[in-house]
UniProtKB/TrEMBL annotation:
This is Universal stress protein family protein. It comes from Natrinema halophilum.
Length: 186
């Protein structure tokens, strides 16, 4: 019965994705496991996965945390599925910084800027000891497509607080690149 249930779930998910007519390579599998987070990570390792996309992370915090910290690749979290066909947002907020995760997302920010988005680079000076201030210069140099970039220097108890609060005030979306050891909480 457990195997049948897993196969039914995988089949249903496969049908939904097939109906979406996505231009992407994907595989839908059903697994039976006592530790779902471990199983996701192990499957990613076995298949040499480049990226894991998880939906509704707040519904399964234990699984989310296990995947986030143990995955052999980057992990993206999606909250909800409305509007999966993306619109170019009017405003894009990005933190000042560096590192491989941050640099990888700047090509996305460039594409959004080329599509007409206004870009805000948020430079946070943390007052509470959570994180360090970054030099926005490397971020600005990596955004040649953005004709209009505004740098906002703010202070906040933590870098996460400063990014989230400022992005909420600006509107639009917040695009971040953070390693698994620097989780930004909602």
């Amino acid at each position: 019965m457990v195997v049948d249930t897993a196969e039914d779930h995988a089949s249903r998910i496969g049908d939904v994705i097939a109906d979406a007519d996505l231009d992407a390579e994907y595989t839908v599998e059903g697994h039976i496991s006592r530790d779902v987070g471990f199983s996701i990570g192990q499957t990613a390792r076995d298949r040499s996965v480049d990226l894991i996309l998880m939906g509704f992370p707040e519904e399964s915090p234990e699984i989310t945390q296990r995947v986030e910290f143990d995955a052999p690749c980057d992990v993206l979290f999606s909250k909800g599925f409305e509007g999966l066909v993306p619109e170019i947002p009017a405003t894009v907020n990005v933190g000042a910084g560096g590192g491989p995760h941050h640099e990888a997302l700047l090509s996305l920010v460039n594409e959004l800027a080329a599509g007409g988005s206004e870009v805000y680079v948020i430079n946070v000076s943390p007052t509470g000891g959570a994180g360090t201030a970054e030099d926005p210069e490397s971020t600005l140099n990596a955004l040649p497509e953005a004709e209009s970039v505004q740098v906002q220097s703010v202070t906040a108890p933590s870098v996460a607080d400063g990014l989230v609060t400022t992005a909420a005030e600006n509107g639009g979306i917040l695009v971040i690149g953070a390693s698994r050891t620097r989780r930004l909480r909602q």
